[in-house]
Design a protein that fits this description.
Length: 183
């Protein structure tokens, strides 16, 4: 839970134990801004801070579903300059993500990887309960399993579908953990 600001200290702790890690990041935004309102740490900057501290193995960073607003005229440039693979949302439209995830698994190899899923990676038609909705996102059928962030059910003034979707995604995440036995 929480926005991606929380990911920064988590990755500090993970990298302290494992060294630089890979990252699979599903989101509408790259979260690699430099500052906002003069602050270097906020929900749109964590992955830039992680690069600066050497917490990420940049050759094993994949950002999926990226689209939407940006304060930069070339919003993918920083990521691509670092060696990240950026998969814009339009490359995901109207197709299964299974082939993409097979490529991502190969890219991650057998080294530690952190997986993060921002709820705004989904189209707000399915999950309006986020503080940063962006149109033209992924569908629930395309996404399965990861850490979920930016879920904010009070913003879902309809029937609670964001909370329901979030609960189902979290259930699926728990079911795929190593050692989990299905009844």
């Amino acid at each position: 839970g929480g926005d991606h600001t929380i990911t920064y200290p988590i990755l500090q702790a993970v990298a302290e134990k494992h060294g630089p890690v890979g990252l699979v990041h599903v989101d509408a935004h790259t979260d690699t801004g430099d500052t906002a309102l003069g602050e270097k740490i906020y929900h749109g900057t964590p992955f830039r801070r992680c690069v600066e501290e050497g917490l990420l193995d940049c050759s094993r960073v994949v950002q999926i579903g990226i689209r939407g607003s940006s304060y930069d005229p070339d919003p993918y440039k920083y990521c691509q300059d670092q060696g990240f693979r950026v998969v814009p949302a339009e490359e995901c439209w109207r197709k299964s993500l299974v082939p993409l995830m097979e490529e991502v698994r190969k890219q991650m190899g057998d080294k530690p990887v952190y997986i993060s899923f921002d709820i705004d990676g989904l189209d707000p038609a399915y999950a309006p309960g986020t503080g940063t909705p962006e149109i033209a996102g992924l569908t629930p059928a395309q996404v399965r399993g990861t850490r979920l962030s930016c879920l904010f059910p009070p913003f879902c003034l309809c029937v609670g579908n964001t909370a329901l979707l979030g609960a189902n995604l979290l259930f699926e995440m728990l079911c795929v953990l190593p050692g989990v036995k299905m009844m």
